[in-house]
Amino acid sequence: MTASDAAQAAGYDLPLPTGEAPAARAAGGTLSPESLLVRNIFWFCHLRWMVVAILGGLGILGLFPQALAYAGLQLPVDWPLAAAGVLAAGNLGFHVHARLLRKSLSSFQAHLNLWGQIGFDLVILTAVVHFVGSLGTSMPFAYLFHIVLACIFFSRFESLLITLMACVLYMVCVLAEQGGLLPTTGMYAAALVRGHIELTPGVFLLNVALALGIWLTVWYLASRLAAMVQARDVRLAEANRRLEAAIEDRSRHMLRTTHELKAPFAAIDATTQLLMSGECGPLPDGAAEAVRRISARCRRLANEIQEMVQLANLRSHGQGPLRTESLDVAEILRWCIAQVQPLAEEQKVVVEARLDSARTKGVDDHLKMLLGNILGNAVVYSHEGGCVCVTCAPAASGNAVVTIADQGIGIPESKLPYVFDEYYRTNEAVRHNKQSSGLGLAIVRHVAEAHGIRIHVTSRPGAGTTFRLEFPAGETDPSSRVPEKESEHGVPDGYR
Amino acid sequence: MAYLMVIDDDEDFADAAAMVLRSAGHDVQVELDTESASERMKEKPPDLVILDVMFPEDPSAGFKLARAMRQSGGEISTVPILMLTAVNTRFPLGFGPGDIDEAWMPVTDFLEKPVDLGLLKKRVAALLGQSEGPAVP
Questions:
Q1: Which residue from A140, A433, A436, B94 has the highest number of Cβ atoms inside 10 Å of its Cβ?
Q2: Residue A351: CATH number of its domain
Q3: Residue A98 CB: number of other CB atoms within 10 A?
Q4: Cβ–Cβ under 8 Å, residues B136 and B126
Q5: What pTM did the predictor assign?
Q6: Listed residue (B97, B15, B16, B1) closest to B46, CA to CA
Q7: Contact A270 B17 (CB under 8 A)
Q8: pLDDT tens digits for range A294-350
Q9: CB A87 within 8 A of CB A124
Q10: Is residue A210 part of a domain?
């Protein structure tokens, strides 16, 4: 090795999987706008507008003291409106903060926002509890809303801090009232009812202790359940990420495998064509026939590989929702007829079409595969000089109805239930055409099942076969075409 | 006679295609990877490129070369491209000119492997007659 060779030498270590969960790697990073935490911030803000409206409503109710007095209640206008105003101003601030930082909101900032919201709420709530009645009403149980929400949003430790904060604020409120620092108020009109509990210390302590005990119990139960749900969410998210990666990997592997399997056949086929065309010199008749058989077998194998991959792809698509769009079945049929035309001319078969526009919802590629396979079969299994008749029209129900009828070899009645099975071929079909893989109608079945297309086959041996397809109704107006997603390996999904 | 460039990592197929096209009177250059093809066409721009999609180092190298050619801005940007592919799980019957989209598939025409060499000769003749727009199948 020369000095210059040594200078150019480069090393590479194959990275081994660390087993580190993607969630752990992403921790502390920037949150996406769709993340749960950010969604919670906005949801919490929306919820608070309702509370603002309720407090505003209470303030308006205070304008009718006579009606309230009739119900044994008293409600001044000032504190509900003041609380509503402060709450609205704070809510606006939290909302604007989250919206401004939406695209670059870090996990820390999101936590800070939520902590601020809950802390702010607890202070306002304590004021409301004081004005409504801290001991004589059920208002203090409103703290439970925030305790439960904290269990959902935060870790157990953080939710415990929120719970303790609620306990402290409530204790400060009732002790201040007891100590005379705050006047004893409430919505009950009768002073006796408002003051009754304050006059008996034992009842006061029991009430406060019960309230705090209930909050801590609720915190314990809710935080434990929330922790279990969060742990399961993390496991599910991780499983989902692995599944998506596996599907993508499988798809890439399938693409590569198809290429690696088909490419050699393409080379063999091209070479046999050279031999048959005489490019490499004349061949004796026997050798020419042998080369022709090699070529035919090559094409058949290449087609079989193609159909196996199509079927595998359809099965994998069946695991997720289809990306459907509004389609004109007549347009798809025109495309399929154009594709099958050279074969029809070769077989001396005429394709006649009467196509009226009829819409359905589906995946363009899949419907082309479905109709292309049925149409291809109709041509292949026709007799020379035969006719394939294709019609398309909307039925009275609005469903697109397609018929593809041939005058070919037909299918015996006893064999009709099996024609959609994988690799099934009738003896009559094998005798007529040795090139089929037996997968075409299995592909048709998969597409039909995924799209809810009803297929009815009628056939008479020696007279022909008719496929009647009823598609689910589509939208009247064509929707915008779903753009093809270019997969990671750069090849758009449909062009594999 | 035209100067054609066949770009395909499968040497057997590329040689077979080249032999047929040479017998049709064309001057044919075979390139087995897109990088050397890109360099070679800068030295002498071909009249037509016959391009495979997948290459061992990059499964979309063919697409990338086609896009790079169209974006080059020079003489190469208008060279007709006939794309060949062994992978088309989309339809049992092959691609059509309607599938060509200048945004992501800036080629002039398609042929799916295994290729009928007679059809290849016809497509090449058609494309050399019209340097713009997809050829009618």
A1: A140
A2: 3.30.565.10
A3: 22
A4: yes
A5: 0.52
A6: B1
A7: yes
A8: 888 887 887 788 778 777 777 765 555 667 888 999 999 999 999 888 889 988 999
A9: yes
A10: no
**DSSP state, residue B56:** S
- Domains annotated on chain B, with CATH: 3-129 (3.40.50.2300)
Please report which residue ranges of chain B form alpha helices under DSSP H.
11-23, 34-43, 61-71, 117-129
Q: Return the structure tokens found at A206.
A: 């029991």
- Between CA A139 and CA A165 the distance in angstroms is 17
* Count helices and strands in chain B by DSSP H and E runs: 4, 5
Beta-carbon contacts of residue A208 (< 8 Å; ≥ 6 apart): A135, A170, A171, A174
> Is A295 inside any structural domain?
no
Structural domain total, chain A = 2
Kindly state whether residue A52 falls inside one of the protein's structural domains: yes
Could you identify the residue written with the tokens 């289809």?
A: A322
Q: A335 and chain B: CB distance < 8 Å anywhere?
A: yes
Phi, psi at residue B57, to the nearest 5°?
A: -80, -25
Q: What's the rounded Cα separation, in Å, for the pair B136 and B121? A: 14
- pLDDT digits over A384-400, tens only? 999 999 999 998 888 89
Judge whether A301 lies within some domain.
Answer: no
Q: For chain A, what is the mean pLDDT?
A: 81
Q: Which pLDDT does position A370 carry in this prediction? A: 93
Interchain pair B59, A494: CB under 8 A: no
CB A388 within 8 A of CB A375: yes
Cα distance between residue A411 and residue A167, in whole Å: 81
Distances (CA, A) of B29 to A219, B18, B32, B50: 77, 8, 10, 10
3-class DSSP state for residue B75?
helix
Angstrom distances, CA of residue B31 to CA of B11, B13, B79? 9, 12, 16
Question: Would you call A266 and B86 a contact, using CB atoms and an 8 Å cutoff?
Answer: yes
User: Which residue range forms the structural domain that includes residue A431?
Assistant: 325-470
The nearest alpha carbon in chain B to A308 belongs to: B89
**Spacing of C-alpha A465 from chain mean position:** 40
B interface with A, Cβ–Cβ < 8 A, is 10, 12-13, 16-17, 19-20, 23, 53-54, 58-60, 63-64, 85-96, 98-99, 104-105, 113-118, 137
Residue written as token pair 């042929």? B111
